[in-house]
User: Fold this.
Amino acid sequence: MKQLLKHMRDVAGVVAMTCVVLFVPMAGPTGAATIYHPYWIDDIKGAIVFYSGDAYYKKEYPHAKWNLYLEQMQVVRAAVEQGDTDATYVAMNQFMDMLEAREGGIPVQPANELFNLCNFVTPPEFHDVTRHAGPPRIEQPRRPDAAQWPG
Assistant:
């Protein structure tokens, strides 16, 4: 149990520090921190691969279907490569709908962090920026056995 809590603190600390150092200085159209660059799709896919390969999530969520998210990002990439802004917008918002619904049984913490990452790196013309009104999502992760975390 202590290892699990330490792991969660470590991951949360790294993510929080990365956001503060890299993103806070740049405010986007929603007032949220943003950073747009040509490799934004790779950033999102890299985060999916990171979470899907994490030992803790593999152990605690062995049936999570991360491939659904990688496949949807392929749809996004194809639309971007075709220069179809409308199709990209639809595909990216479908990806975010999947995150909100936790499709494929993915854990709450990575789903929220991926959702927040989408706001930071996705150009505003490719997603519904009104989804990101307010602070980033940081729900308390639930234990797989539905019990409360200690403390």
Q: What stands out?
A: Residues 20-34 have pLDDT under 50 and may be disordered.
